[in-house]
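Hi again,

Forgot to attach this to my earlier email, sorry! This is the prediction with adenine bound. I've pasted everything inline since the attachment limit keeps bouncing my files.
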Amino acid sequence: MERTASGHEYKVKDMLQADFGRLEIELAEDQMPALMSCRSVFGPSQPLKGARITGSLHMTIQTAVLIETLTTLGAEVRWCSGNIFSTQDHAAAAIARDSAAVFAWKGETPQEYWWCIKRALDWGLGGGPDLIVDDGGDATLLIHEGVKAEEAYRNTGRLPDPPSTDKAEFQIVLTIIRDGMKTDPKRYHKMKERLVGVSEATTTAVERLYRMQANGTLLFPAINVNDSITQSKFQNLCGCRPSGPDGLMMATDVEIAGKVAVVCGYGDVGKDRAAALKQAGARVILTEIDPICALQALMEGIQVLTLEDVVSEADIFVTATGNRDIITVDHIRKMKNNAIVCNIGRFNNAIDMPGLENFPGVKRFTTNPQTDRWVFPDTESGVIVLAEGRLVNLGRAASHPNLATSCSFTNHAIAQLELWMERHTGKYEKKVYVLPKHLDEKVASLHLGKLGAKLTELSKEHAD
Ligand code: NAD
Ligand code: ADE
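Structure tokens for the complex follow:
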């Protein structure tokens, strides 16, 4: 870890990329009007002055505009990424040099990834952050697991035992917590006490928050920005459209037209992926468990089958369910030579990567970064897996476009402001909240001018 002249701690790949990052941040600012408007409206009154914000969200150029909006509003910020492959190193360098503490680089190991989250949460002797911006819930998870482990230690004297779980990533989480407890066995309790709340953006992590609320285990208030319309219908439903095919083509040079592409899951993200593949000329087939989503797909002219029906015929497989074990190693064994397999869901358990990696005699050939051809010994046949089964649009392409991200990130900024301004009023309990509809409309309206739209005003008669 190093420190800039202005005192920001950082660990990024290459500080020499900071000027390049700054140029792209300036281009993105022009395309993110609602965030920029937050700066001009709220900046002068510094409403976030005194707030320490930790962000765990893909460290991209668009995220840089969010971070600098939060600092313009007065916050102090520490940041890490939401995925081992999603950081844009020039964005990380520019932010580390100019605005905030950053711990993120493209191609972290899972151990490094969790180290970065720990560093972003660690505000020194004074404890943790006041607010968290989360995308995927990993910072939230570390605190919840840390508190659980500290309580167990206090009651039984036992430290976390990483081999007690067979989940490789969770072993890392337990190791980080265990090692930290040797120097401070109350670290996460202190964080929990200080925390005012979290804003969370992604579907699967929001589902976890609701589950914690129902169990009574949620430790601080949460604002679910995923269910703001300006998030779900722009970030999820249109956000992946360019980056989905872009990721496939950049990785493999594949001609999508004429291919058979299977999309698993027809929620917001699956709809977006299916539309993009259709537009690129693929024949799309869908798998679903939900009859309504299945009917929606049929009405769009998309066939609905099971994975078993199509596994040996399709050329491209994309999982977009947010669920686990969607494509197993048995499915992969049945695929055509050089079928392409990827996941756009938030977590890395949709495709059975451990099953593939541990298949006896399987060989891995990396054709370019985050693109691996896996060849089975008996058939000499191989499949191409992108971004090691992790979310492909951020791992293997330039993620969501500015405007979709601007909607999403403005919701985060408003949620952070709301939590901070109401911190002493008791308005927010240890529950999950959504932003009111008028704020959603405000976020949308702040983008209209940029796109040359003029809104018709509702007359009193029509309103009545
Ligand atoms: P969603 O809940 O709207 O849709 C998921 C769909 O998958 C549902 O229709 C569900 O019925 C279906 N499904 C569940 N299990 C299935 C199974 N076993 N087989 C087939 N279908 C199944 O969720 P969403 O908003 O579309 O998000 C999907 C995932 O993408 C989540 O993990 C979310 O966090 C993530 N996400 C990623 C990005 C990105 O940039 N990569 C952006 C937004 C959301
Ligand atoms: N999620 C999807 N696209 C993103 C982007 N461009 N930056 C940060 N998070 C994202």
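The pocket of nicotinamide-adenine-dinucleotide (ligand 1) is lined by residues 202-204, 235-236, 239-240, 264-270, 287-290, 293, 320-323, 326, 344-346, 391, 393-394 (CB under 6 Å). The two ends are 61 Å apart (CA to CA).

That should be everything now.

G.
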